[in-house]
Structure formats: C-alpha cells, structure tokens
Amino acid sequence: MLGRARRLAGCERGLAALEFALLAPALLMLVFAIVLYSFYFAALMGVRHAAVEGARAAVAGLSTAERTALAQGRARAVIDGYGALLAAGGGAAIAAGPDATGTFRVRVSYEMSGSPMMRYAAFVPMPSPTVSASIIVTNGSY
Q1: What top-level branch of life does the organism fall under (predicted)?
Q2: Is 4 helix (H, G, I), strand (E, B) or coil?
C-alpha cells in the first residue's frame, strides 16, 4: 500500500490537465473581457465620430435652425453608418443648438444597456452603459 502511494505521488501524467482546468477559466474570462471592451470602445468611437461630424456640418449653416438641422442630420447619418454596432441599444439621442455662452454645442448620447453585450456586464466589470460626446464650435455671430 505504501509503495503504491509513492508511485501515485510521483506520477505526473494528469498534471497538464489539472493545470489547464485551473487556469482556463481565468484565461477565457480575459479573452471575453477583451472582446466586450473592444465593442464598448468601438461604440464610444462611433458616438464621438457622430458628434464631430455633426459639429463640422453645423459650421456650414447660416441660421441657428439651419445649423441645428445640419448637425442633427449629419450626426444621424454617421450613427446609421455604424449599423448594428450602434443600433442594438435603441438609438442615439442627438441634441444640437446654441449654448448660453454664445457657442454651438452638438451632443450625442447613446444608451448601451439594451445592447446584447451588456448582458454579460455582470461577469466582467464594465464602464457606464451611457456613452456620450459633446463638441463645441463657435456660433459664428461674433
């Protein structure tokens, strides 16, 4: 009995499988977190891109109403261009208009809580599900 226990203690046949069973969950969670964060940062970049393009289009307007319409239209076109990445959460809120300080602000906000990837936020700590960007351009009245 003692010889059999020594032989079993010196056996390394199943050691690789045991190490894999212990480390695989951590490595898979790391890969999963990388994929989730890549989708999150892609959505963040899309929202920023929409805000920048909206502000850029607003510069061409002559009146406040025209600038607002141009900014909202261009920002909506950029959001729609991102397809399923920014459509899964229910759409973006686009606000454009003059500020109290005499500037023109374009703000794009996107709620990601309806996105399928946010269902897994309980397993991987994620940032806030609301992604927003705000761009300020001069109003042109000075």
Answers
A1: Bacteria
A2: helix
CB 101 within 8 A of CB 73: no
User: Count H helices, E strands: the chain?
Assistant: 4, 3
pLDDT in tens, 15-74: 888 889 999 999 998 998 898 889 889 889 999 999 999 999 988 888 888 988 999 999
- Whole-prediction pTM: 0.76
Tokens standing for 73?
């239209």
Six token digits for residue 2: 């003692």
Residues constituting the chain? 142
Helix axes 15-58, 64-81, angle to 10 degrees: 150
What gap in Å lies between CA 95 and CA 50, rounded to an integer?
A: 11
